[in-house]
Amino acid sequence: MDPIVEVVALILGFLAWVMAGVALPNRYWKQSTVDGTVITTSTIYENLWMSCATDSTGVHNCREFPSMLALSGYIQASRALMIGSIVLGTFGLVATLVGMQCCKAGGENYVLKGRIAGIGGAFFLLQGLCTMISVSWYAFNITQDFFNPLYPGIRYEIGEGLYIGWCSATLAICGGACLVCACRSDTEDKVPYPYSATGRTVYSAAATSRRDGPPTYDKNAYV
Q1: Can you give the pLDDT at residue 158?
Q2: Helices (H), the chain
C-alpha cells in the first residue's frame, strides 16, 4: 500500500472523527426561522440533547429534554447513530495507525498490516454512513415540517451542526474508500498464481536460478 495514501486517509479519518465530536454537542442542529416574521423577540434552537432560547438582550436559557423515551423516534435514532459513529471512528483510527507501514506495532508483515489498514478503512466507511444517515434524517424532518402548510408548531431551519455533520461524513467516506481500495489492489498484486494468463507456468525465483545455473548430473550419467 502506498504510504501517501495511508497518510491522506488517516488525516481525512481523523478530521472526520473530530468534526463528528464537534457536531454531536453543537447546540444549533435546528433554529427557529425568521421567515415571515416582522419582529423577532426570541430565537429557539435545539440539538439532540436540549432546547434553548435567546432573547433580544442576549440572555440564553436552556433546558435538557426531560425524558429520552418521550422524544421523537428520529431524535433517539440520531443520538444512537452519532455515538456509534464516534466509536467506529475511534476503532478506525487505531486500526489505521497499526496498519501503517511506518508503524512498528504490527511487526514487519506488510500484507497483514495492509489488511488491518483495510479494516480501518471499513470502520471509517461505517462512521461516515452513520453520520450521514443521522444528520440527513434529522434535516429531513426539519424540512418536512417547514414546508407543511398544516404544521401548527414552530418552524425551524437547518443549523450549523448539521453542516458540520455532513462534512464529517464526507471526509470519513473519502478516507475509508481510499484505504479499502488501496488495500484491495495491493492484495491482488501480491497473490501468487501458479499459471499466467497465457497458460505458461510461472516459475519462482529459486526455480529460475536452478534452471539457469550450471547443469548437474547424476552419478549414473558417467557410467
Answers
A1: 92
A2: 3-23, 73-99, 110-146, 160-190, 205-212
C-alpha triplet 124, 126, 129: angle, nearest 5°: 110
Domains of the chain by range and CATH? 3-194 (1.20.140.150)
Q: Is the dihedral of CA 205, 209, 211, 217 positive or negative?
A: negative
Distance CA 178, CA 183 (A): 8
How large is the average pLDDT for residues 29-34? 86
Higher pLDDT, 165 or 208: 165
Distance, CA of 40 to CA of 31 (rounded, Å): 13
Query: What residues contact residue 96 under an 8 Å CB cut-off, 6+ apart?
Result: 6, 9, 10, 13, 117, 120, 121, 124, 179
pLDDT reading at 82 higher than 90 = yes
Give the pTM: 0.76
- Alpha-carbon distance of 16 to 93, in angstroms, equals 10
Task: State yes or no: pLDDT of 213 exceeds 90.
Answer: no
Strand partners, 30: 46, 158
| CA distances (Å), origin 87, targets 105, 175, 194, 216 | 21, 16, 42, 63
Q: What is the Cα–Cα distance from 49 to 75, expressed in whole angstroms?
A: 9
Mutual orientation of helices 160-190 and 3-23 as an angle, nearest 10°? 160
